[in-house]
Amino acid sequence: MPQASTRGSALVGSTTSSLPSGSAPIGSTRSSLPNGNIVVETIGLSKSYGQIQAVKSLDLRVKQHSIFAFLGPNGAGKSTTIKMLLGLTRPTGGSAKVFGLDVQEQSVDIRSRVGYLAQDPRFYGKMTARQTLEFVAHFFYSGPKSVIDDRIDETLELVGLTDLADRQVGSFSGGERQRLGIAQAQINYPDLLILDEPAASLDPMGRRDVLTIMERLRKHTTILYSTHILSDVQRVSDTVAIMNKGELVAQAPIDELLAGTESVTFTMTLRGDLDAVHSHIGTLPWIRTISREAVPADAGASEAWSVAVSDEPTAERELLRAVLSSDDVVVTNFGRRRHDLEDVFVRLVERGEEQ
Ligand code: ADP
Predict the structure, then answer these.
(1) Ligand 1 pocket member 77 (CB < 6 A)
(2) What is the Å distance from ligand 1's center to 90 Cα?
(3) C-beta of 75 in contact with ligand 1 (< 6 A)
(4) What integer pLDDT is reported at residue 21 of this predicted model?
(5) In the prediction, which pLDDT does 355 show?
(6) CA–centroid distance, residue 247 to ligand 1 (Å)
(7) Domain 262-338 is classified in which CATH homologous superfamily?
C-alpha cells in the first residue's frame, strides 16, 4: 500500500512523540465520515462464484469505534465479504462503502486507511519482529528514522512483543506471530482494522492475548473481525453480525441479541416414571420444548432435562411443582440456564434453515 506514504509520514511526524507507551493516536479522528459514524455500509452486497452464492444480499452497518464480530461457521461467506470490502474481489451484486467510499471505485483510497490481517499471515522467518515492522513501516512513512523507530517501539509494546523484538520470527509461537500480524496491520494508524479469524488457530493463552490487544485498540480504531468462536465474540465484541450460508441471520449489539431471547431454559436431573411426567408437562401452554438426555446411573438420576419455557414467572412458580406432581418422580437437581450467544446462534441458524 505505498500510496499511503505521504499521508503516513505527516502523521508520524505530528503525533508519535508524546504518546504514553502502549497507546496510539486516534486514527479515526483524521477524517470525518460522510455518513455520521458509519464506517462500513453494505446494501444488498452479493457475490456468486458460478453456481455458488457465497454472499447473498448482505446489509451491514459497522459503527465507528465498535468491535464488530462477523460470526458464522466455515463457508458462511465471511472471508468473501471481507475481500469485497478490501477491493480484492468484485461483488456480483449490490454495493459497499467504507468511510463513505465505494469499494469498487475507490479501493486504493480505502486500503490506505485500512489495516488488514489475513487468516494465515506469512512472515520471513529469518527477520526479527522489529525488522518485520520496519519493512512494513517503510511503505507508509518516509520521515526521519527516529520517528519510525519510536512508532515501532510503541507498536511492539502495544502487542506485548518488546522483549521478543530482536528474535527471529521463525521461532515465534502461533500467538506471538498473530500479535505481530496485528502490530503490522495497525502500524499506520488505520481508521479500520479488519482481522480475518485472528484467534482461530491459537491456544487459550494465545487467544486471550489477541483479544486483550483488540480491546486495547478499540479506543483508537474500528475493528471488524471474522470468527467462528462464540466465546471470543461474547468476551470482546460490542456488535455481532451472524452469517450462515451466505446470508445475514442477525445483526445487533450483543446485549440486545442476548436480551432478545424469547425463551428461558430450566434444567433438571431426575429419575422415576419420567415418560408420564413428560406427557403431563408437555401439555402445559407455557412449555416450549423439552429435551431429554440419559445420564450415568451413579449420578443419582436417570435423565437430564432442558425445558424451554415461554413464560418465565409462571414456570418459576409451577414447573417444579408440575414435575413433582407424580409421586414416582425424584428431582435431584433444578436450575435455570442463562442464554448465551451459543443459544442465540443455534436458534437463529436453525430458524434460517427451516425457512
Ligand atoms: P467463510 O470465510 O465464512 O468460511 P468463505 O467466504 O470463504 O466463507 O466462503 C463462502 C463460500 O464461497 C463457500 O462455499 C466457499 O467454498 C465459496 N468460495 C469462496 N471463495 C471461492 C472461490 N474463489 N471460488 C469458488 N468458491 C469460493
Answers:
(1) yes
(2) 14
(3) yes
(4) 34
(5) 60
(6) 13
(7) ACT domain (3.30.70.260)
77 CA distance to ligand 1 middle (Å)? 6
pLDDT for position 268: 93
Per-residue b or e along 262-293, where b marks 16 or more CB atoms closer than 10 Å to that residue's CB: ebbbbebbbbbebeebeeebeeeeebeeeeee
Backbone angles phi, psi at 78, to 5 degrees: -65, -50
Phi and psi at residue 329, in whole multiples of 5°?
A: -105, 135
Whole-number Å distance, alpha carbon 39 to ligand 1 midpoint, is 24
DSSP secondary structure string, 88-156? Answer: SS--SEEEEEETTEETTTSHHHHHTTEEEE-SS----TTSBHHHHHHHHHHHH--S-HHHHHHHHHHHH
CB of residue 78 inside a 6 A radius of ligand 1: yes
What are the sequence ranges of the domains in the chain? Answer: 2-258, 262-338
- All three cell numbers of 190, joined, read 488505520
C-alpha cell at 257: 441479541
Q: In this predicted structure, what is the pLDDT of residue 11?
A: 30
User: C-alpha grid cell for residue 48?
Assistant: 456468486
pLDDT along the chain (355 residues), means of 10: 31 28 38 75 96 95 93 90 94 96 93 90 94 90 85 92 96 92 92 92 85 89 90 85 91 78 80 91 90 81 87 91 91 82 74 63
The superfamily (CATH) of domain 2-258 is: P-loop containing nucleotide triphosphate hydrolases (3.40.50.300)
Which residue CA neighbors atom 23 of ligand 1 most closely? 49
Contacts from 229-236 at CB under 8 Å and sequence distance 24+? 229/199, 229/200, 230/71, 230/340, 230/341, 230/342, 230/345, 231/341, 232/69, 232/199, 232/207, 233/69, 233/71, 233/341, 234/340, 234/341, 235/211, 236/67, 236/69, 236/211
Q: Looking at this protein, which amino acid is placed at residue 193?
A: L
Residue 329 Cα to ligand 1 midpoint, Å, equals 51
What is the reported pLDDT for 7? 31
- The structure's pTM equals 0.73
Which residue CA neighbors atom 17 of ligand 1 most closely?
54
- Verify whether ligand 1 is closer than 6 Å to residue 79 (CB atom): yes
